[in-house]
Automatic annotation (TrEMBL):
The record marks G106 as: Important for substrate specificity. The gene is pfkA. Catalyzes the phosphorylation of D-fructose 6-phosphate to fructose 1,6-bisphosphate by ATP, the first committing step of glycolysis. GO terms for cellular component: 6-phosphofructokinase complex. This is ATP-dependent 6-phosphofructokinase. It is found in: Cytoplasm.
C-alpha cells in the first residue's frame, strides 16, 4: 500500500483535525492508502518523529479544535538537520511515498521549495485569516468570525449599559476579513482593516455621531490596521522569529485616543487566541472534511505540487504557485460598500 505522511504547520486553526480525518477515512476506504502523522509540523518530518494514523485514531475528530499532530513555526530548511537530502532519507527509511502539508503561506512557500528539491508533496491551505489567494474560503475563518461576532454581541450589552465606546481587536495581520465579516454580522459602527488606513479624526467622527444618537459606539479593528500616522516600528519579532504585528495591540492604542479626543469613555478588548481555539463550526467541519478527502485523491493521482481549494461550492485543485501569488486582501470596493453606513 502507498503510505503518506501528514503534517500541520504554522498557527493552529479549527478544522485541522477534520482535514486529517477526511484524508485518512477516504484514503483507507477508497484507495487502501496508509497514513502517518509528523509531530509538530516540519519538525516531525526533519527528525522522523511520527505517529500512526488510521481509522481508529481519527474517530470523532471532526469536532475537535487544534491539531492532534501538534504544530510549530519550525521551517524544513532552518535547522542544520533540515533540508531536502535529510528529508529524502527520512521518507525512505519510514517508507513514506509523499507528504501532505496543511498550512498557510509560509508552509506553501516551504512546500514549493521542497517540491523543487525533489520531495513529493501536496498542500492544504489553512488560516483563520482567510487571506490565501487560491481558495474562496479557508477553514477556521468561519469559526473565528462566529466567535468574534459573539464577542461583539456581548460587548454591546456592557457598552450600552455604561454608554461607552467599545473597541474590539480581532486577528488579521495582512487582511481584514475577520474584522469585516464579524463587524458586519455584529452591526459595528466602524470596521478598521489593514487594507484601508482611516484617520483618527474620521474614527472619532463616526464614534461621536453614534454617541449623539444615544448609542454606545462599537469599533472593530483588525490587528494589522494602522493609522496613517503610525510607523512600521510597531512590528516586533517573537521568540520563534515570527513577526508580530505590534507590541500593545492596536485596540489599546485606539481606545485612549478616542476617549481623549471625543470625551467618550472607551474600553479596549483584544480577542486574541480565543478566536483560534475550540470547536469548529459546522461550515468549517464540512469544508475541512471535503478538503481532506480531496487530498486523498490528490496523492492517489500523484499530483505533487498541487493543493486542494474551494472555488464557489466546489473543491478544486490548484498549485503552490497560485496560493503564493499576492495574499487575498479585502477588495476596497467591498469595504466601501459597508463603510457608507459607518457612524
Ligand atoms: O495567521 C493566523 C494568526 O492567528 C494571525 O491572525 C495572527 O497574527 C497570528 O496567527 C498570531 O500568531 P501566534 O499564534 O504565533 O501568536
Amino acid at each position: 500500500a502507498k503510505r503518506f505522511g501528514i503534517l500541520t504547520a504554522g498557527g493552529d486553526c479549527p478544522g485541522l483535525n477534520a482535514v486529517i480525518r477526511g484524508a485518512v477515512l477516504k484514503g483507507e476506504t477508497v484507495y487502501g492508502q496508509e497514513f502517518v502523522g509528523f509531530r509538530d509540523g516540519w519538525y516531525g518530518l526533519v527528525y522522523g518523529d511520527i505517529i500512526d494514523l488510521d481509522r481508529s485514531v481519527v474517530r470523532g475528530l471532526s469536532n475537535q479544535g487544534g491539531t492532534i499532530l501538534g504544530t510549530s513555526r519550525f521551517g524544513p530548511y532552518s535547522e542544520p538537520d533540515g533540508g531536502p537530502e535529510n528529508i529524502k532519507k527520512v521518507l525512505k527509511n519510514l517508507g513514506i511515498d509523499g507528504v501532505i502539508a496543511i498550512g498557510g503561506e509560509g508552509t506553501a512557500a516551504a512546500s514549493k521549495r521542497l517540491l523543487e528539491d525533489g520531495i513529493p508533496i501536496v498542500g492544504v491551505p489553512k488560516t483563520i485569516d482567510n487571506d490565501i489567494n487560491a481558495t474562496d474560503y479557508t477553514f477556521g475563518f468561519n469559526t473565528a468570525v462566529e466567535i468574534a461576532t459573539e464577542a461583539i454581541d456581548r460587548l454591546r450589552t456592557t457598552g450600552n449599559s455604561h454608554k461607552r465606546c467599545m473597541v474590539l481587536e480581532v486577528m488579521g495581520r495582512h487582511a481584514g476579513w475577520i474584522a469585516l465579516h464579524s463587524g458586519i454580522a455584529g452591526g459595528a459602527h466602524a470596521i478598521l482593516i489593514p487594507e484601508q488606513p482611516e484617520s483618527i479624526n474620521q474614527i472619532c467622527a463616526w464614534v461621536t455621531s453614534v454617541k449623539n444618537r444615544g448609542r454606545a459606539p462599537m469599533v472593530v479593528v483588525a490587528e494589522g490596521f494602522k493609522l496613517p500616522e503610525m510607523a512600521e516600528a510597531h512590528s516586533t519579532k517573537g521568540l520563534d522569529g515570527f513577526n508580530r504585528p505590534r507590541l500593545g495591540g492596536i485596540a489599546e492604542v485606539l481606545a485612549p485616543m478616542i476617549e481623549e479626543r471625543t470625551g467618550i469613555e472607551a474600553r479596549a478588548t483584544v480577542l486574541g487566541h480565543i478566536q483560534r481555539g475550540g470547536v469548529p463550526t459546522a461550515f468549517d467541519r464540512v469544508l475541512a472534511t471535503r478538503l481532506g478527502m480531496a487530498t486523498a485523491d490528490l496523492v492517489a493521482d500523484k499530483k505533487w505540487g498541487h493543493m486542494v481549494a474551494l472555488r464557489g461550492t466546489d473543491i478544486v485543485r490548484t498549485t503552490f504557485d497560485e496560493a503564493l501569488a499576492d495574499p487575498k486582501q479585502v477588495p476596497l470596493d467591498q469595504y466601501q460598500e459597508i463603510r457608507v453606513i459607518f457612524g
